[in-house]
Amino acid sequence: MHPARRLWSRTEPYHAVVYFSPEPRSAFEAVGLRGFWRGYFAGRAAPLGAVGAAPVTACFYGFSPGFVARALPSIWALTTPARALEARVDGADAALRRLLDVDALHDTIDEAARLLEDGLRACDPAGRPVYAGNAALPWPEDPVARLWHATTLLREHRGDGHVAALLTAGLDPCEAHVTQVAATGVTVDTIQPYRGWADEDWDAATRRLVARGWMTDAGQLTDDGRAGRDAVEEATDRLAAAPVERLGAARVERLCTLLEPIVTALVEAGELPYPNPIGVPRPD
């Protein structure tokens, strides 16, 4: 496994409590955002300001435009980006404090946060809008929240690079999901309902991929499709490599060692499903 991918698999469960644990949803509801997707789009888009559906659809890439438009821009009549950001951090922090023995892990969390923060200093925001918005936010002082912010930056930096890789490969958002399902063997229900694509959208994307020579009529990747999908993943890892290159092999290994008991506790809690819509594999 590429070291950038390994680090992502070790950090993403820490970030992902904001999507899968109950505390963030309660925090969003407290600022007027009822329903999971209102909180999701408000919290994740808030670093960009009170934006509408079009730029969020473009930046997040994988969602159906109509799916995004159900939440944006109407959520900004219910709350502000500042309140959404506060709810997001407070909800994630509350979830992590419930799931982890924070007192016992305090020094481990603090060292991991500072190591990851140092690695992130190598990340250039140019061409990475979601990362750039988050990178402009202040760093929390508390180690639990500081590590959550660091893992958020790492995943959004990687995500922006993944979008660039998909664009380079000529895969539109729905095609990207269709090839992901075919490449990984996860079920369609793991992804399609969570990204808002109708059955006819999915079928049309499959037909385009068949015409391109990437898929068979039976819905399997061809040799060209497998090579193309592998190239996307390789490019994603390459574009995400700046933090691990700055840290070097020894410090990456130290960071993964620090993260192991943290992520093990989170995975064993069972709130992050495997497989999942965000595509993160179970940590090695």
Write structural notes for this entry.
The chain is an all-alpha fold and about 280 residues long. The protein contains 15 helices and no strands. The model has no long low-confidence stretch (mean pLDDT about 95).
- Mean pLDDT over the residues: 97
Using DSSP, what is the number of strands? 0
What is the number of helices?
15
Alpha carbon gyration radius: 19 Å
Helix content: 55-70%
Show unreliable segments: none
Number of domains: 2
Distance between the termini: 9 Å
Instruction: Name the helix and strand elements from N-terminus to C-terminus, one letter apiece.
Output: HHHHHHHHHHHHHHH
Describe the structure concisely.
By secondary structure, the chain is mainly α. It is 69% helix and 0% strand.
